[in-house]
Structure formats: C-alpha cells, structure tokens
Amino acid sequence: MLVYILKRLGTGVITIWFIATATFTGMHMVPGDPLTTERGMTDNIRENLERQYGLDKPVIEQYFLYMGNMLQGDFGLSFTEENRRVNDIIRESFPVSATLGVLSLFFATMGGILWGALTAIYRNRLPDIIIMFLVVLGISVPSFVLAGLSQFLILNLNQTMGRSILPVAGWGGFEYMLIPSLVLGLSTMAYLTRLMRSSMLEIANSDFIRTAKSKGLSTQRIFISHQLRNAILPVITVLGPSIAIITTGSFVVEIVFAIPGLGRYFVQAVAQLDYTVIMGTTVFFGSFLVLMVILVDIIYGFIDPRIRVQAAK
Amino acid sequence: MLMTNRILVFLASTLLFLLSFSAYPQVTEVSGVNPETKTIQLALDQEPPQLDYMKATDAVSFFITEHLQEGLIRKNARNQLSPAVALRWEMTGTSVTFWLRENARWSDGEIITAHDFVYAWRRVVNPATASQYVSIMYSIKNAEAINNGQAPLESLGVRALDDFTLQVELESPTGYFLELMAFLLFYPAREDFTEAQDGRFGADVENMLFSGPFILTEWVHGASLRMEKNPMYWNKDSIEINAINIPYITQDGAARFNVYKDGKTALEGGLVGLTAEELEGALNERYRLRSVSDGSVFYLGFNHSDGHITANKNFRKAIQATFDSVELVNKVLGIASYVPGKSLFPIYMNGVENKFRQEYIVPEVELNLERAREYLELARQELGLETFPPISFLIDEGSTGPIVSQYFQSFLKQNLGLDILIDVQTFKLRLQKTDVGDFDLVLAGWSPDYEDPFTFGELFASWNVNNDGFYKSDEYDSLVRLVQSTSNQQIRMDAMGEMQDLIIEDVVILPLYERYITYVQDPRLSGVLFTVTGGSPIFTYARIQEEQ
After folding, report:
1. Per DSSP, what are the bridge partners of residue B394?
2. Domain B68-196 is of which CATH architecture?
3. How large is the average pLDDT for residues B360-375?
4. Which residues in chain A show pLDDT less than 70?
5. Which residues in chain B touch residue A49, judged by CB atoms under 8 angstroms apart?
6. CATH 3.90.580.10 fits A92-312, yes or no
7. How far apart are alpha carbons B414 and B402 in whole angstroms?
8. Which of B12, B18, B200 lies at the smallest CB-CB distance from A83?
9. B295-515: which CATH topology?
C-alpha cells in the first residue's frame, strides 16, 4: 500500500512539473506582457520596470529562476495587485472559496444521493420524471444565469418585505453563503443525481441483490446496506476532482456575489497577463487536483476491497 | 450506511473547520447612507492594486489615495485649485516657491514639512522605484535625466529652503505646473516611515501613513476597506463624513447595481459608470440618473506610417467627409449623455478666459458624399492602386469597440465601397498591436492627466509615446514646442487653437465622442465632487441630510 502511495505521489510531482512548464511556455507565447498598459511608456521607464520584475532576463533564465523559487514555495509578487505576494493571495482567498465549495459540495452530495435514490425507486413514475426534468435543467442552465437570477430574486424578496431577508452580495456569516453555495453546487448535484440513478438501477438487477431478496431480507435493509453502499462508489470517484474544482472557486459565482475568493483570479490573471498569478493559481490548482485524485483512489480501496487486493499484488 | 455516516462526519467537520478560519470581519452597515453616524457605504469594481501612491497608475488606487493623502494644492468643492499643505505659492518663469502651512500633520501626529516633498519626489524619479507615470514629473529640472540614470538623485530641481518653504526649479516654463500639484505623484512621503517598510510601503494598513482627510483603518484584500475621518487632518472640521465603508468588491456591474438597489450603497457608477443594460433597467425603474464627463475623448486613430493606405491624406479626408459623429452617438451608440466628437480638445477644458472651445471654434467639416468620392479617387491615383485592399480596424472586445467598428464597416462599404476587416483582440493584445503599429484604423481614447488642453495637444508630437498612429508633422511639433516654452496663457492657447485646426485639416484623427459616465446616487447624499482627473468621485466635501 505504502509503495503504491509513494508511486502515485511520484507521478503526481511529475504531472505538476509538466503543468507548470506547459503553463509557463504558453503564457510567454502570448504576445504582450503584464507591463503593457494604456499609457505609453518611454523605453527607459519600461526598462526600469522590466528590471524590477526580472523580465529583462532571457526567458529560459526566468524559467529556472521561477522553478527554483517555486520549489522553495515562493510564487513571487503579483503584477496587478502590485504589493501582494501570490502566496498571500492564495492563502487569503482559498479559505473563502473552500468554505463556499465545501458547503456547496455538501448540498450537492446529499441532494445527489437522495434524489438519485428516489428516482431509482420511482423509476419511470411521476417523481422520477419531474426530478429528471429538473436535473436536465440544472445541468444545462449556465451558472451565470442562475447566479444573476437568484440575486435578482433575493433583491425582489428584500424589496417586497421592506427589509433585508438575505444579503444580495458580500461575504460574512452563513447568510452570505447560503444562496451562492446552492447556485455553485446545483450542477454538481444534478450530475450526481443522474450518476446515482443509473448506478442504483444497475445494481438493482445484480446477483447479490437477488440473493438478498431470496434470503428474505426486508426491502429497507436491502436498499440501505446493499444497494446504496454499492451504488455510492461511482459518486465517490467523481467527488475527488469535484472537490478540487469547486473548492478552488468559481469565477462567475464569486463576481456576481462579490465574494473575495480565489476563483476570480484564475480568469482575471489571464486577462491581465499577470504571469506570477497565472503560474501560482495554476500550479496550486493542479497540485490540489492531483492530490484529490490520489486521495480518492486510496479511499476507494477502503470502501471497495476488490481494489485493495489488486493494488497489493 | 456506516460509510455514508463516515463521509457525513468528515464533510461536517471539514465544513466547521473551514468556517472557523474564514472568520471574516463583517463591516457591512445596514444601509448605504447612515445619517446618524454620518457613514456611507460603497462598492468597488476591483481591489486597489497599488496604494503606494508614488507608483499608482489606475483609477481605483487614485480614488482611494485621493481620500487618504494630500499634496500642496487640492481641488476644492467647486473643483478649483485651493491651498492644501501649501498655504500660498509664487511662480516666476521656471521657478516655483511654495510656503507650507505649519499645522498640517501626518496621521501619527508629526508635522508635514518641505523635506517630505523633497524625499517623495526624489523617490518617484529614482529609476529603482520604477514608477510608471514618472514622465509627468519630467517638467522638473533634471527629473528625466535622473530617471534615465544620467544624473544623481540630489540634482533634482526641488529643495527645502527650510521646514516650510519648498522651492522647485523647472526645465522650462510649464503653464499647467500648479494643476499637477493636485496629482498623487506629487504628494509627500516621510522618509523614516517609508524606508522602514522594507519595500512594503502601501501594502497593508500598517504600512501606510496618511496626510489626507481620511485614514485607512481596515483593508481585507479583495474583500473590503474602511476609511475613517483623520483626527490629525488640519481641516478635519470641514469634513462631515465620518467613515466610508467599502464592503463589496466585484467587477460585475449588474451585481453592484443590485447592491445599490438593495439600499446597501450610497452611489453606483461613479468610477466606471452604469452599463447600457443597467441604464435601461434603471430608466424603467425610475431611478434618477445623473451623468458627468469622465474627461476622456475617444477617436478613430489612423496609422500614418509608410505602407499603410491610411497614411494617404486624401484617403483620410474621404472618410472624414462621410463620417457623422452625431449620428454615431445618437443613433448607433444611443447613449444620450455622450457628446458627439468634434475636436481633440473636449468641451469642458478652459482656455484663456472662457472655455477653450468657445475661444477657438472648431473648423466645420462638411458632410459631402460627392467630395468624399473625389478624395477617394485622388487617393487611389496617388497610391497607384486598381482597387483598395481591405482596411483593418483594430478594437478590443470591451466597451463600444464592436458597435463603432461595425458602424464604420457598414457605412464605408455603402458610401465608398471600402472593405473593413474588424480585428477583435483582448484588451492586452489590442494594446500590444497598437504599440507595434499592426493596424490601419484603431479605436483609441485618451483621458487627461491634468486639466489643461495640452494634455491632449501634446499627444501628437512626433516624439510622444502615446502617438499611436505615428503621426509626424514639423508644423505640429513646432506648435508643441512653442507651448512648452512659455507660461503665457494667450500664446499657449493660440498655439493649441492652431493644433485643433491642424488636426481637422490634416485628419490626424477622427474625433468620435466625449465619454460621460452615468451614475445613481442616494438622494440624502450631496456634494460629491466629480473631476476629470485623479481620484473622482471625491466624497471629502459630501454632506448627508436626514430623511426627506
């Protein structure tokens, strides 16, 4: 098991190095640089700036410098938020995104498992049809529509009631997180519902369920300890990458609800060609994703003994 | 079931863990304007990128700094230059003397002295500081040479004769020099404090020292800021607002407007203006809209360098004779508050005694399709072409670019049979392509650095780095040099009047529109000052009335 984990971590490091190198190359191939602004600069002012940011060195030297700093855990200074270290940006905004993300994942998993199981039980009957219709809606309506719409509804609610029921935007206590996390988690919930439904249906026809039935176990008992436990496996597989994606923030939800999370930096940094922030956020996200996938594989082993046996060989 | 339980416990505990360390200070007040506490609340479109004001270049940093710091001179409530740290001043030729008030203090209680200005200005021109807007200081003696690394820092033309007398030597007479004193690059900084910050000056609340009407008391990066009245400010009794709260930072204008509608902010649209969709919504919901010039002029830039068809004057004249800026603004853009472009010099600029545009009337350009076709035929012969190849029109995705370029595309095809290829780029790439001259036509804009027509006039000097189209004319260059050589207002303005004529006659550019921003404001709030330069909107002179 330990060898397996070490091996996975080793390939993980190579993956991250590859991600970093590819991002670095791609980023420098885009014409323009972070110092390009609307106001023209004399060559001299530009040289002063380039010297300060180390952009006067050859790209290959910048690459090795950057990699060296990164190995020491230093992502450098942001170009757009000029006095802030990228490490600080990640350290301060990731917890915000993560809080929102975990809350929304909580909604998504609970909802997904519940709705999925329900649709499987009521297969092809009215509850199934209604839920599956909502699921298609949940998957296909983009989050900026959903976010804008829900904000509009909160605003109208507040105006109708004549006082603040829910905050329209901003960040603070739980009341600020409720709606954004629901919006953020909805498409994952819809996806998990579908996954859960098909997985439940597949298991309903399997041999061991038939055996359980023939042993005379109660429907409830079969559902909970045989059907649900086995059907939940694919959900967990999907959950790993989902955690990485959702907890690192969503651009749309964060800007609509004015949430100071990490998500907005992914998009803004690229638009501004903020080299250090692009690298920092990408490497951070990449490492997090790789780690989550490894973690899920390990947890998987605990839930499904078959995988553990294979890994031990 | 056991497994689901475990997962549940895991999720719940992670959630609690994360919630515990996202303990965010909740600075949100109940409403946008609070008449009891005299507090207002605002939303920003982005986090201030640079509060080390000696290096700042963007509108949000300007806005925050305007409230936190103060220079020798400031704009008063009527938008006129008035004494700030300096009590009085005298300008003779290339020498300016400022006498400082003795009761202006830093927020830690120390007196602001002339040495603080000497230190700050030297820091700006020091090449190691790499201040991007430093060229605005080049009118001071030796500033450019120092910034180019060719002269020692001490040779900068600014001296403290004593603690309260500051003397400035200029390279040449600079008619607008006093205007510059209200610009943040000329604000003071105290050496002992600045140097002690280890390169982090302006990075956080504890790395800042304040000379202005407000102090920054809270700054959660990317999330919120709070400014409170500065108890050490020499003129604090004239300030009514006790605190400015900024609990919302988002680039989504619709979201900010929703926050305003929810009564959580006092003013919206003051920095970037409401978008066209928001305007429509606001009109339907009967919000009172206000609009004010943001100072900028937008124009169609021609590439004047060799190898571009747009370098041909008759070709440019053909386009000029068919273009109607009134139609563009009223029918195509449909933004009633914009002013159709007639000149490079906007209508609000002052001339010698009156408005510049009243003293120097813009030559009338006749819209004449026949003439336009004659010009085009002349251009075709001069260029030795059978037919005109497609012309590229460089824009970025934002703002009015797509609408304006499509308008040109359609009317130039219809009237002159010209083909326009619209080159849509991201903002950064548009700047990059403009810099290297990879365009025939470009949608460009300029907003003033100081309130004098010369901030626009100097644009098309052949050596100006912002002369995007690489226009070069000896006549224009000599007019620019003339303005730079004197502080006699009559001579300066006459020269700029000639520039105005030359720009039309030579079709250096085609003025499109003067931009206005539209905003909404809580009716209990008054006295918000909008300026075309610097940190507008300014809340320093604002007043709050009780419920009406």
Report:
1. B423, B442
2. Alpha-Beta Complex (3.90)
3. 94
4. 307-313
5. 130, 132
6. no
7. 18
8. B200
9. Dipeptide-binding Protein; domain 3 (3.10.105)
